Sequence to fold (488 residues):
Amino acid sequence: MSSQRQGSPERRLRADRARQAADVIRQQVVGRAYPGGVLPDERFLAAEFSVSRNSIREALDLLREEGLIDRVPGVGTVVVTEKYAHGLNQLMGLAETLHEHGDVTNDVRALGVIKAPSSVAARLGSPDVVYVERLRRLNGLPLSLDLTYLALDVGEPLLGLDLENRDIFSLIEQTSGRSLGAASVTLEAVNADAHSAAVLEVPRGSALMVVERLSHFACGRPVDLEFIRMRGDRLTMRAELRRS
Amino acid sequence: MSSQRQGSPERRLRADRARQAADVIRQQVVGRAYPGGVLPDERFLAAEFSVSRNSIREALDLLREEGLIDRVPGVGTVVVTEKYAHGLNQLMGLAETLHEHGDVTNDVRALGVIKAPSSVAARLGSPDVVYVERLRRLNGLPLSLDLTYLALDVGEPLLGLDLENRDIFSLIEQTSGRSLGAASVTLEAVNADAHSAAVLEVPRGSALMVVERLSHFACGRPVDLEFIRMRGDRLTMRAELRRS
Fold:
């Protein structure tokens, strides 16, 4: 690396320098740090990162491949995808989280009572469950595909309600008169299979954030098990951690 | 869907049923719920999920494409990748987190003092920083590629130390005599570019979990900014959330 103080002679590949710059630029893009969504020109970025213009071009290529930025003739390099942050510290529905960015609507793809697979039945303490499958959109654009299992007594009151426009969390709290408490969440990065990709309107193989979330009533009873595929190019997850 | 109680006539595609089963099976695989890492046979799974054997075959195909399971003649369908959980509630280094699974070692790919890009300098309050780039392995297999920027006074004491075998968190706390406090974390799912894929030994385009983490001393001073690419097929992130 170009170590000004250590003077290490180690040679770094251009690809390594490009990745290093791309990560910092990605963070600026996602954090909306560039005024008007226009990136500084290559010469400025090369100076900023103490690398060659070729390395900067390669860094911008990486972010273009991710679908974050694009070149617009006469304007320069611009941000083309807004990514929205979903908080991991507080348990919130998507519409609650994103209300300042626009309207969340849901295509209800399936809805009904089913016999639960045994692992789902065990986790919800309910042999029959309400199954809800929704394609969720923000301002009409697909954000996530959610497969939801609800304990029968909690899910049945939702069957006639406005699942197209309301978060399941708020409907559960309204119909049960009880508050949700904690949830356990597992996150994975997974490549989209062909069919999920088609539903979410992304190329096959696109990186998705797959979230499995088991939500409980405040009393500790598990009531809502969800498997969520989020488009990686449209959602980020944010959390605050403590050392101890 | 096959709604036993509602009797909804809605037709569901086999791909939808396969995804639905695959999500529950994935959760069982990652949670190590199948004894000996051998999945039940197709007939059992078809009954379990109330779907056809063709749907189960398609579900298993999805998980095989993700690299989670494989068919072994004479044995059946077996789990082939262990995924490790990294906690999102407590701020821990990788070696601390995974100590029960084996030894974490680090290939130090770059190390030295550099002039920080302005956004990094601003976040760390340090115009010069120590830059450390590590390929992190568990029992020899690549898990993540970490690009780390440390405030100069915090990073310089680490330059001669055992970065191959120790977490940066524990080295910082040892050399500074101070405790780390909170960290802000952003998670994204991103497709691996060609060069990062080669370093992490995955196919180009593989889904990676990209983590950006800014860690602070307990007093609130930011000291450690990291950009981490985790192999999606080897790490999951776990968190506990509260409703309010």
Summary: Chain A has eight helices and ten strands. Chain A touches chain B through 89 residues (CB under 8 Å). Confidence is low (pLDDT under 50) at residues 1-10 of chain A. The longest helix of chain A spans residues 14-30.
